Amino acid sequence: MGAVSAAVDCVVALFSLIMAVAAPLFDSQIVLPRRLYPAPLVNFHRWFIAEFDDYLVADPPAFFIGLVWLDLVFLWPVCVANLYGILARRRWTATTSLMAGVYMITYLCAILGEMLSSGKATPRLLQLYVPFAVFAVTAVLRGLCSCSAPLAVAMSLAPSAQKKMV
Hints:
Order of helices and strands: HHHHHHHH
Low-confidence stretches: 148-157
Radius of gyration: 19 Å
Number of helices: 8
Mean pLDDT: 88
Structural class: mainly alpha
Helix content: over 70%
């Protein structure tokens, strides 16, 4: 069980690292003026749009701009905290993993719903989002299944036994 937990931690840490870096350097270019970014980042953003034919990033609709702001205000700090918590082995990372995973699943439902219903998405663009779905589900499972043994034992004890433990 320890190997599975370590593998899940690695997957969620990688997801958190990607989001902690991508949100301020890449996603924010959708909502903030490009003059705030160095030329290599702007060029990378343009390359990404051309390479993956990401029509949502190229010409973002209003709902997508709202999602990007939510990324910057909510998901980015949660992913930074989650990455720190996993590396420092903090117990509260179950909560931050759950928060990041549920947010990402919700985000992907909106994005993939638009892409699939519009018919504008290329297979390559859809494949780009699949790993994020895997990361999101893994983060949710980590958040739901990260119950420590002492807590599980304490929860199973009768109320009178819990008072004696304290």
